[in-house]
Amino acid sequence: MKPPLLLWAILLPFLTLAVQWLLWPWLNPYVWLLFIPTVCLSARLGGFWGGLLSTAISAALGWYGFIYPQNFSPPLNSATVSTVLFLLIGYMVSYTHERLRRSQQQLAASLQQIRHDSEMQLQRYAQIVATSGDMLAFVDTDLRYYVVNPAYARLFGATPEALQYRQVAEVVGAEIYSFIAPYLERALAGEPQRFTTQPLCPDGQQRIFDVEYQPFRQNGLICGIVCSLRDITILKASEAKLKASEVTLREAQHLSKIGNWQWDLTTNSHYWSEEVSRIYGLDPLLPAVAYPQIRRFFTPESWGRLAVCIEKCLVSGIPYECDAQVLRPDGNPCWVIARGVAIRAADGSISKLHGTIQDITQRKQAEEWLRESEEKFRNAFANAAIGFSMTTIEGGFMDANPAYCTITGYTLDELRTLKFSEIIHPDDVKANMALLERMLAGQISDFVVENRYRRKDGEAIWVRKSIALVCKANGDSQWYIALVENISNRKQAEAQLQQLNADLERRVLERTAALTTANRELDSFVYAVSHDLRAPLRAMSGFSEALLDDYARQLPDTAKDYLQHIRLASQKMSGLIDGLLNLSRCIRRELHQDTVYISAVAEQVLAELQHNDPERQVSISIEAGLQVRADARMLEAVMRNLLGNAWKYTAYTAAANIRVYSQNQDGRIYVCVADNGAGFDMANAQHLFQPFQRLHSEEEFAGLGIGLATVQRIIDRHGGVIDGQGEPGKGAVFRFSLNVGSDNRPPPLNGTENNG
């Protein structure tokens, strides 16, 4: 206890006496009202002894200052009791304060020791952290950095001192802190945390960190978090490369159909790669089959040879390589080449065997195919009807098949004593040698030529030969291969054909001249029909009409009928002339290829027919978008004739219907014109497209019988086909298709589209 504090504990009762003396008129009769707090304060300041002294002084001052002076008689019992109680209270207060003071001192000493121990541990931890290669930091419960090692500070481009006592959120940034905050909270709650993150570091690089948060406890209380960061970017990259290498190795083994295996003799453990399992036809997830149980995968003959090689390797360490045939569980056999080498331990004993299994089925198949091909080639070479020879670069014969010997008249032994230039006709040798020089120079790889051979008997024959140069792998020339065919008969036939062609050309010229003359005569006929015949017809029609107009009253009725017949006959004759001229133009007129919109032409023609015959009520249906490539004027004539006929032959039909539509049949597109009019009998269908042939009488339907003939000529000019089908009283349908090729026979009409 310090003396000044004890002095204050002694002086306080006297100060209280003075205050209470002044306030006594108001405090009377409460003597101890101010002295009790004084004792408490004195005990607080002076401790136990200060409190006792203050209690004794306060009791004396209260007794003699406020109790005894007012009572001239001996002390009353109540005053004595209150004084004793005051003394007891003072003692208790002093004792209690002393105990509290000592407890506080002990607690302060304990806290000081704990703080000292913690600082020592933190200093030791700081030394460990500073020397560690990992990024380490200690974060207190307020998430402030307390200790940071240089590696951790470098991550943020700072020093450990610069990060000390700074908030974690301030240092790492809002984005990273929002990610790590839940882990920090769980670590402060006592749960160790470990996770991997890939943040964008302050230096602008993105790295991968293995992060560990360990709660730091002191005497059972969590005082902070030990943060450990390890940069595993390179490790992850290495792992990725390793995985990629493993994948590449598996793919390479799969592509090359080669697998590796290992047999540890000390532990009798076996390892297979996935490709080994695939070669044996097993699930790669199944364990490797031990030796010698693998014998079930091989044919007995193959296992006999392979087992001998393995046993030799186990005994003497001799590497082996053996072809064997594998029997897979699915029943599909394959061929493999098994290789193995021995690995010796430090004492010289053989401890391991490892090797490879490679699927060589394709190679075996290729070898078999090559063997069969060679056999087929030998058979073809010996039995071919075409001559086959092999000659050296210098021109000497190496080999020739029997057909070649037959063509040349020499035996194989005789050919081997000759040069190939000796059997070529002298007039053709120079041209052949020039082609061979070009081939040797690399300008051409092969050539085909027709020239003459001189047989052994001296006969000259024509041959067609194909020459090819066979080279080595390095590009050096080895020999020539020649295929030779005797074409003497063909040459004779060509000569005869040339003579026939010359005769044919002469005949074509003669026929062309005759056709030109006929065309001129036809032109003269057309001119005569157009001009010479029209004038008399116009005169007949004109004079008949003049007689009827001028002398109608004077002529009897019979004369009038005769004149009317003359007029009608002349008009019919004029119509026939027009039809013949149109027919002639269709045959002789030059074609022009245009895009003809059938739908639009049909609408225009039917509109004109409706305008000329407004009283008719006809249902019309035209498919939209119909178009073809043809001569526009000619195709318009086709549509006018077909639609005109449909309009005419539906004149007596109550609910007339005319349809224009397309039809796809057997890959051809047909344009169809259908009606439900008078129709016709299919027994007379052969007369449909013949000029002046009509299937209805003049009294029923007027006409000249030349319209359909004109239509057929136009369709023929376009290389198309046209046909018609009908039934009396049920209408008819005509359809045509353009540019259908040489086959002008259309398939039958579909029954559902006959009458529209």
UniProtKB/TrEMBL annotation:
Biological process terms in GO annotation: osmosensory signaling via phosphorelay pathway
Xref: PANTHER family: BACTERIOPHYTOCHROME, TWO-COMPONENT HISTIDINE KINASE
GO molecular function, one term: ATP binding
Keywords: ATP-binding, Coiled coil, Kinase, Membrane, Nucleotide-binding, Phosphoprotein, Transferase, Transmembrane, Transmembrane helix, Two-component regulatory system
The protein's name in its UniProt record: histidine kinase
All copies of domain PAS, residue ranges: 121-191, 373-443
Coiled coil regions in record: 483-510
Domain Histidine kinase, first and last residues per copy: 528-742
Highest taxon listed in the record's lineage: Bacteria
Its membrane topology: Multi-pass membrane protein
Keyword Cytoplasm in annotation: no
Domain annotation PAC: ranges: 320-372, 447-499
EC number: 2.7.13.3
SUPFAM superfamilies: ATPase domain of HSP90 chaperone/DNA topoisomerase II/histidine kinase, Homodimeric domain of signal transducing histidine kinase, PYP-like sensor domain (PAS domain)
InterPro entries: BphY/WalK/GraS-like, HATPase_C_sf, HATPase_dom, His_kinase_dom, HisK_dim/P_dom, HisK_dim/P_sf, KdpD_sf, KdpD_TM
Reaction(s) catalysed by this chain's protein: ATP + protein L-histidine = ADP + protein N-phospho-L-histidine
Subcellular localization: Membrane
GO cellular component: plasma membrane
Lineage, broadest ranks: Bacteria, Pseudomonadati, Pseudomonadota, Gammaproteobacteria, Methylococcales
Any matching Pfam family: DUF4118
TM spans (from-to): 5-27, 47-67, 79-97
